[in-house]
Hints:
Layout: E1 13-18, H1 25-34, E2 38-42, H2 48-65, E3 70-74, E4 89-92, E5 97-101, E6 111-113, H3 117-122, E7 128-131, E8 136-143, E9 147-154, E10 156-159, E11 164-165, H4 178-189, E12 194-197, H5 203-213, E13 218-223, H6 226-230, H7 232-238, E14 241-245, H8 246-252, H9 258-272, E15 276-279, H10 294-305, E16 310-313, H11 315-318, H12 323-338, H13 343-347, H14 358-372, E17 375-381, H15 386-393, E18 400-404, H16 407-412, E19 419-423, H17 430-443, E20 452-458, E21 467-476, E22 479-483
Parallel strand pairs: 1-2, 1-16, 2-3, 3-12, 5-6, 12-13, 13-14, 14-15, 15-16, 17-18, 17-20, 18-19
Antiparallel strand pairs: 4-10, 5-9, 7-8, 7-11, 8-9, 20-21, 21-22
Helix pairs in contact: 1-2, 1-12, 10-12
Amino acid sequence: MAMPVGPRGRKVRILATLGPASDTPEMIGKLMRSGADAFRINMSHGDQQAKARLVEIIRSFEKESKRPTTIVFDLQGPKLRVDSFTGGSATVETGGRFTLDQSTDPGDATRVHLPHPELFQAVSEGDRLLIDDGKIRLRVAAVTAERIETIVEVGGRISNNKGVNVPDVLVPIPALTEKDRSDLQFALEQDADYIALSFVQRPEDVEEARRLIGDKAALMVKIEKPAAIDKLEEILSLADAAMVARGDLGVELPPEGVPPLQKRIVARCRELGKPVVVATQMLESMINSPTPTRAEVNDVANAIYDGADAVMLSAESAAGDYPCEAVLMMDRIGRSVESDPAYQSRVHFTATPAEATTADALAESAGLISNTVEVAATVCYTSTGSTARRIARERPPVPVMAMSASLRMARRMGLVWGVHAVHTRDVSNFEEMVGKAKRMVLRHKIAGAGQRIVIMAGIPFATSGSTNVIHVAKIVGDELDDYGVS
């Protein structure tokens, strides 16, 4: 099966995580053909050399398909873990006592080493400690400089190196570990399109990552800590994109608290015109099953109805038995939702009022034209991606073609709702702009003879932030039969 040329036929993007089940050229090619728009490389597993090979494979398919392809490097972040146990595990009893201490001796049913001394200064009596994604729940009874004594509220078996969540505390550790710094430098050397920052707690975490990244990649914040919710506005203002990382968020918050937070984060990112990804456990059962549960399908559909830019597959595509089937299912759900006659009204439940700028006013006008006049697509010329994001923020009923002379910017568009990015040479005058827009929509099968397109650009050309032209053109064979004026 050949690589697709034109738009996917849906506007929501699919972000697929690569892993042992999908790290070969054959499987990556199949995922792209199945509908994956972007790929996530998880730096929590594997070495840098293996990750470089994944980038090489993706870029070879990108060159073959002439479709700019997005790569997201996801940093591991400061994951807190217990140390090891005698025999590899121990069982703690509900109602009993369990101690986390700074002794490096192997653990047992009464205690274990916690190799994070900063936590001994941060937690207080009454705070919760959640182990192994919340399967084990402890309540702090007393704290000294060497010991955290707890009461076991929910017991069970704990094995070596299980994760520890501390939902009630702003943990005094940086968002970037030494490993993260090394991985970040590596990701930038690999021309990463997005860097995903894990376990963000405060704006300062984002500022530090921004200083290291500069403008070499876009910065995505993963919202997975309750502390980040308290500073959500400041954190989102500093980032280029966001991910609703529902796994850890659902561990540290009551499960029923996650859906309203998901909607809140998606809505706020849409208002800001920043891509937002909904992630974790979306088609979880497809790790081992060729079909999802109906509840999972509804979960994915609800994220699409809310207007999320992208939905993500984690273990389903990285380590599952049916990675291609999971991507195809995401694709089918997206197409089904977007063909619902009520979709356009539902996706506009979130108001996205234009800011007092020419570019915002024109983007809003492009959406109104698309809803008023029968047009096949909106075409924009962009050097920073800003114009495409502004148009996509309005969630127009037609595809958006973003043409850019910058391959880096074209690649970043792979996580923006409804945008089909094209890397092409820049234009030098208005007539060339209109002619190229027509040729490209024909070549990419977005519009045909007799159809109209809306064109947005800035004059003078190749000037960042100068969007000031909106134009409606009709495609009539090779003729230029234009409607509207600049």
